[in-house]
Design goal:
- By secondary structure, the protein is α+β, with helices and mostly antiparallel strands.
- The chain folds into two domains: 185 residues, 3-Layer(aba) Sandwich (Rossmann fold), CATH 3.40.50; 109 residues, DNA Methylase, Chain A, domain 2.
- Helices cover 29% and strands 17% of the residues.
- α2 runs antiparallel to α6 and α3 packs across α4.
- The longest helix has 16 residues.
- It is globular, with a radius of gyration of 22 Å.
- The two termini are 38 Å apart.
């Protein structure tokens, strides 16, 4: 739904149309609760009509009898060992206890008493509006007309909620003072490193080139020449900070700009092993070590995975909200 700007197809893309299957399930089964996740760029997709797709989704939930809240969560800002940034949407059927509590005090729910706020506390903003705006019209109207006046800026901030098509949205700042994990915390002892993950000395130069800054001249298929620039990336990856987001192309020995590389105590460089990638996303060790699954495929899994601790905290917070009087 929300790929790079020149590739984003929104709700009509091959992945975007999955939303309508979710819509069908919610309509036909009408479960009391829903939890959804996507890349944070969803809030400003597509590039030509910022926020339209998110507005369609929120309006869909509202029309189906749900109130919903969302938050963009950076796992590293709450102590987890990766900077993976994702938007989480929690939906509550109108007749459930969490929905009734949300409706009773929307602002307090969003920043203090709600399911997401209790799992991931935020600093209380100085000013919370009662209503930011309403999403009007049919889903088709929203698709055609939402935010056409200001297509370059999305009206959705990193947190918010919707009920009866009314949207309350605001910028929040994490409030976390607990333990913080770094990439160095999840590495296996060096004696356990598979030698095949150590980068040969004659390959290091290729890795440094991939990670370095570039100013290149390229030619499009239509013959137009253009400049392509890339900024530098850390080489090796710093051990005193959370890891970067794992991507699906993390696996394999081919030099790459986006794969993680760490330096060993003897100065050699190495790639991350599958168990370390699992730890970055807070999976149990060797969760993906099944049958004849290759290490490259295990890395691919982690590039597609959620940070499980985020889901766990949200699930436990929802359970408490359901059980509370």
């Amino acid at each position: 739904m929300a790929r790079t700007l020149n590739q984003a197809a929104g709700l009509v893309g091959k992945k975007g149309v999955l939303w309508w299957e979710i819509h069908r399930l919610l309509r036909d089964k009408h479960p009391p609760f829903g939890m959804f996740e996507n890349v944070d760029r969803l809030l400003k997709s597509p590039a030509t009509q910022r926020g339209r797709d998110f507005a369609v989704m929120l309006a869909s939930l509202s029309d189906l009898g749900y109130v919903a809240e969302w938050r963009v969560i950076n796992a590293a800002e709450y102590g987890m060992p990766t900077k993976r940034l994702r938007v989480f949407i929690m939906a509550y059927r109108n007749d459930t206890a969490p929905a009734q509590k949300l409706l009773a005090n929307r602002a307090d729910w969003l920043v203090k008493s709600g399911v997401i706020a209790k799992a991931f506390p935020v600093e209380k903003p100085l000013l919370i509006p009662e209503l930011s705006f309403s999403i009007k019209g049919s889903l088709s109207d929203i698709t055609d007309k939402f935010n056409v006046e200001s297509p370059d800026a999305s009206p959705f901030a990193n947190a918010g909620l919707i009920c009866d098509r009314g949207v309350l949205t605001l910028k929040t700042t994490p409030d976390y003072n607990g333990q913080r994990m770094t990439l160095g915390d999840i590495l296996v002892p060096e004696k356990q490193v598979n030698p095949s993950y150590i980068i040969p000395h004659d390959e290091v130069k290729k890795w440094k080139y991939c990670k370095g800054a570039k100013h290149l001249t390229r030619t499009k298929k239509n013959g137009i020449v253009y400049s392509y620039d890339e900024g530098p990336m850390s080489f090796p990856d710093p051990l005193d900070r959370p890891a970067r987001t794992i991507i699906t192309a993390e696996g394999g020995a081919t030099p790459s700009r986006f794969k993680h590389v760490v330096q060993m105590s003897d100065g050699r460089y190495r790639r991350l092993m599958p168990v370390e990638l699992e730890r970055i996303n807070t999976f149990p060790d060797n969760h993906t070590k099944l049958g004849d699954i290759t290490d490259t495929k295990r890395a691919f899994f982690m590039g597609n995975a959620l940070v499980t601790e985020v889901v766990t905290r949200l699930g436990l917070s929802l359970a408490r909200a359901i059980e509370a009087p």
